[in-house]
Design brief:
Blueprint: E1 5-11, H1 15-26, E2 31-34, E3 48-50, H2 51-59, H3 63-66, E4 71-72, E5 75-79, E6 85-90, E7 103-105, H4 108-117, E8 125-128, E9 133-138, E10 143-147, E11 150-159, H5 166-171, E12 175-191, E13 202-205, E14 212-216, E15 221-227, H6 240-247, E16 256-271, E17 275-276, E18 279-281, E19 287-288, H7 296-315, H8 326-350, H9 353-357, H10 361-364, E20 367-368, H11 398-402, E21 406-410, H12 412-417, H13 420-428, E22 431-435, E23 443-446, E24 452-456, H14 459-464
The structure holds flavin-adenine dinucleotide.
């Protein structure tokens, strides 16, 4: 793709913009990724993603490239100032229903390198680094972007342009502030010598004086996030000697090299408008969360997955443009549910509330926490949640069989009983019929973004699926 036109122009090549480009290209659309900076962002950011995100990476053919860069996470533990376990959020270590593990640690620059490196294999993606989008003009059937490399035109534009999104400003509406606003020092270390005692679990130090977080990274990488008190690092820079003073209770310069440190203000907010005609927001431009659940980037990857198949279906003439309105109605409440949970968690780490609420913990054993699993907006669980990804009889994972199409999972007896005309009509709509046992329902209709759209007990119920897609 050489000329200045594409189906979709993506502003920003962070993990969300890069993933969206792959998803769109795999579904037949051309995507132009326009990125202001010459190289990927170098400061410490995401260290965790979940099974749903790994499934998206599987869908763009990059799970095998990303997997060796990850490390499975056993979960998170909350400790009181004396080091006693207050709350246990252990994660299963076995492969789960989505076909992947529940929780992966990773190094964001490494992930971004894989995503960008794979652009070269995808002729439908044009990547323009060191190019800034400076203006947006919406016309009748397309959008023209003014960029520092000249005009670029697309049918749709997605602002994956981060927390200070330029496109969000153009679209208007601003963000709803959900109230969290704290300054934290984030430090990435590389161990010089083994420190097995630091452990594999992420640790939340619920110290009312100075809450802090420890995360085991991949290889020798270790992350500490430490609350800053009023007046500390007023210019946003923490001197190295002061950083080591704050780390001293866990590590010293004999243990580790300080790779990078940064002062971040953790915020919580959701954009009021995710779509304005042909303009869309995805990732940090649409939502900001404190990082206590490790879900900021994950939410952005879910945005990309939700939007890409809808754009593809509209572009193919299989759905009306109105389908794109469901992007915000589905994604905004879902992202918000994670943000609100992260804020609650931050409240527990940050205040005496945790210690007070759990003073009985030693007698009863530590409280246990479960991962949340909200449904997309407009759905009632189990619909609007990720469908399982079974391994099929021939050893194939479901998604590898269906690609980016709808999947109709059927218990074998129903698959055999389905009238051929109905099976043909479903196939004509683009669904792949997959007989499989065992299933929770006789029939399960799964969208291309792997969300469960509908279930049915029998052939008559399956016939009603034809009204849904
Ligand atoms: C300390 C910390 C820890 C975190 N931990 C986790 C975690 O464990 N798990 C998790 O899921 N998330 C985590 N996050 C959040 C995660 O890092 C972000 O959600 C994610 O990086 C956002 O990706 P993005 O692609 O939306 O935006 P970004 O990565 O911010 O990318 C936006 C891009 O847009 C470009 N851009 C902006 N304006 C323009 C323009 N006008 N023209 C061209 N280009 C432009 C920028 O240069 C940038 O490259 C953490 C964040 C922090 C700060």
């Amino acid at each position: 793709m050489r000329d200045a036109e594409s189906d979709v122009a993506i502003i920003g090549c962070g993990p969300v913009g890069a993933t969206l480009a792959h998803l769109l290209a795999q579904q037949g659309l051309t995507a132009r990724v326009i990125e202001r900076e010459p190289a990927a962002y170098h400061l410490p950011r995401a260290v965790h993603f979940d099974d749903e995100v790994m499934r998206v990476f599987q869908g763009i053919g990059l799970a095998e490239a990303i997997l060796p860069q990850t490390r499975l996470s056993p979960g998170m533990r909350f400790l009181d100032p004396e080091g006693r376990l207050l709350l246990d959020w252990s994660r299963p270590m076995a492969v789960g229903p989505q076909g992947w593990n529940a929780s992966y640690r990773f190094h964001q620059p490494g992930l971004e390198a894989v995503l960008r490196g794979a652009f070269a294999d995808q002729p439908r993606i044009a990547f323009e680094p060191e190019t800034e989008v400076t203006a947006v003009t919406v016309e009748a059937h397309s959008v023209t972007l003014a960029t520092t490399a000249g005009p670029r035109r697309a049918r749709w534009v997605v602002g994956c342009d981060g927390a200070r999104s330029f496109l969000r400003g153009v679209m208007g509406g601003g963000m709803e502030d959900l109230g969290f606003d704290e300054r934290w020092l984030v430090v990435d270390l590389i161990l010089r010598r083994p420190r097995e005692d630091l452990g594999d679990y992420s640790l939340q130090f619920c110290d009312p004086q100075r809450p802090a977080t420890y995360v085991r990274g991949v290889g020798e990488r270790r992350r500490f996030e430490i609350t800053l008190l009023p007046g500390e690092a007023p210019d946003g820079v923490m001197p190295e000697a002061e950083t080591w003073r704050l780390l001293a209770r866990w590590v010293t310069p004999e243990d580790a090299v300080l790779e990078r440190g940064a002062v971040y203000t953790f915020r919580s907010a959701v954009a009021r408008r995710w779509r304005a005609g042909p303009l869309f927001l995805a990732g940090d431009s649409a939502h900001l969360t404190p990082p206590f659940l490790g879900q900021g980037m994950c939410a952005g990857i879910r945005d990309a997955s939700n939007l890409a198949w809808k754009m593809a279906r509209v572009a193919q003439g299989r759905a009306r443009e109105a389908l794109l309105d469901s992007y915000q109605t589905e994604r905004a409440p879902h992202a918000r549910a994670y943000i609100e949970t992260a804020i609650r968690l931050g409240g527990l780490i940050n205040t005496r509330a945790m210690a007070e609420a759990l003073t009985n913990a030693p007698e009863e054993g530590p409280a246990r926490m479960q991962s949340i699993a909200p449904a997309l907006g407009g759905f009632v669980a189990p619909l609007g949640r990720p469908a399982p990804q079974p391994i099929l009889a021939d050893g194939t994972r479901l998604d590898d069989r269906v690609g980016h199409r709808f999947a109709l999972l059927l218990r074998p007896e129903l698959a055999e009983a389905l009238p051929p005309t109905l099976a043909d009509a479903l196939s004509a709509r683009g669904a792949v019929l997959v007989p499989h046992a065992p299933l929770d329902h006789a029939a399960m209709l799964v969208r291309p973004d792997r969300q469960l759209l509908a279930t049915a007990p029998d052939a008559a119920g399956v016939a009603r699926f034809l009204d849904l897609f």
